[in-house]
Amino acid sequence: METNDAQSCHRCIAAIDHVTFSYEHKKVIDNLQFNILERDFVGVIGSNGAGKTTLLKMLVGLLKPTQGEIRLFDQPVGQFKDWERIGYVPQKNAFNPLFPATVREVVTSGLYSKKKIYKRLTKADLQKAEDAMLAMRIEDLAARRIGQLSGGQQQRAFLARAIVNNPELLILDEPTVGIDAESQAGFFRMIRHMHQHHHMTFIMVSHDMEMMQAYLGTEPQQVSGGIKFYVKHTHDPEDCRETNLTHSIGQIREMIGIQ
Ligand SMILES: Nc1ncnc2c1ncn2[C@@H]1O[C@H](COP(=O)(O)OP(=O)(O)OP(=O)(O)O)[C@@H](O)[C@H]1O
Known about the structure:
Layout: E1 12-23, E2 26-37, E3 40-46, H1 52-59, E4 67-72, E5 75-76, E6 86-89, H2 103-109, H3 123-135, H4 151-163, E7 169-173, H5 181-197, E8 201-205, H6 209-216, E9 222-224, E10 227-233, H7 244-256
Parallel strand pairs: 3-8, 6-7, 7-8
Antiparallel strand pairs: 1-2, 1-4, 3-10, 4-5, 9-10
Adenosine-5'-triphosphate binds near residues 28, 51 and 52.
């Protein structure tokens, strides 16, 4: 377990601690040990059926490990309540194409949590939804029905919904499936930007080896069963002791192209 304090950029955000998972008698994940640290981008790659979706579902508490434990922000997932700190875009979004919600309504629905379900949304809450749509460049689609949009536009709406609470950890399950190559590239650019400039931590399943390796490198940090974990931190390891200020300076350098 990581012992870094809250000031460190290597705080453990999610710990997968000797986790095994079986569907009835079929073991899908076997004694997996992996930590996701603050500001990591973790790319999860593996063949069909390797257990990637199962792993993400355990991370968000939808499935319970058969053995072992998952901790989010140092709390066992079963007791974790701060779901606003986490954004999740599942593999296949369950919206029926005829579902009569607008993009704005879908994005706003991300503001409701168990805690807030009976609360009225404030003006500030509604502004968060507008900001998330702006960030995903779908503000001009706000009043359109979600089912009438292209796959790429829908994915941006689901991502806007996932970031509406400004989460610290974003969990994405094959977010670019079914969208054209150009939109996929745009989507990756957006995600990379969020990682590098908005201090978000990511875990993302993808079959797009080329895009993933272009950002995360060609060597996995860990291989467990059929799952490979590729990891990129927002800055070089030797800079890890830097302060928040130097972190920002590093990013400014990067933005203006100075190495
Ligand atoms: N609800 C379920 N009941 C029984 N077996 C399941 C269930 N869900 C998944 N499985 C099986 O568990 C294994 C892992 O499934 P999972 O969806 O986690 O794989 P994946 O790596 O995400 O695959 P893909 O790349 O195809 O999305 C597969 O063999 C799958 O058939």
